[in-house]
């Protein structure tokens, strides 16, 4: 009877050891899967940051270009106003002389 109990104890310990080994392997697989997800998320986040930087840079360049165009338009308008004012001054001088 003791021999049978000994065999049953050995079988039980072996079964527990195999179960623990399988659980360890599954845990290792889960850890690997989590690491892969984290790596993918990190890479995606880096890509998103790069895309955001690029978009912001393009927006800044666009605003600068539009501002430069607006400055040029104001300068042209000011030149036209100056020209018109000079013409009015000349017309007034001519009118005063006559």
Features:
single chain; 98 residues; mainly alpha; 1 helix; 0% strand; rod-shaped
What is the end-to-end distance? 143 Å
Count of runs of 4 or more consecutive helical residues: 1
Write down the Rg. 42 Å
Helix content: over 70%
* Unreliably modeled segments: none
Helix-strand string: H
Largest sheet: none
Cα shape? rod-shaped
The averaged pLDDT comes out at: 87
Q: Kindly name the structural category.
A: mainly alpha
Strand percentage lies at: under 5%
Count of beta strands: 0
Written account of the structure:
By secondary structure, the chain is mostly helical. Helix content is 98%, strand content 0%. The chain contains one helix and no strands.
Brief account:
This protein has one helix at 2-97. By secondary structure, the chain is mainly alpha-helical. The longest helix is centred in the middle third of the chain and has 96 residues, at 2-97.
What's the topology here?
Elements lengths: L1 H96 L1
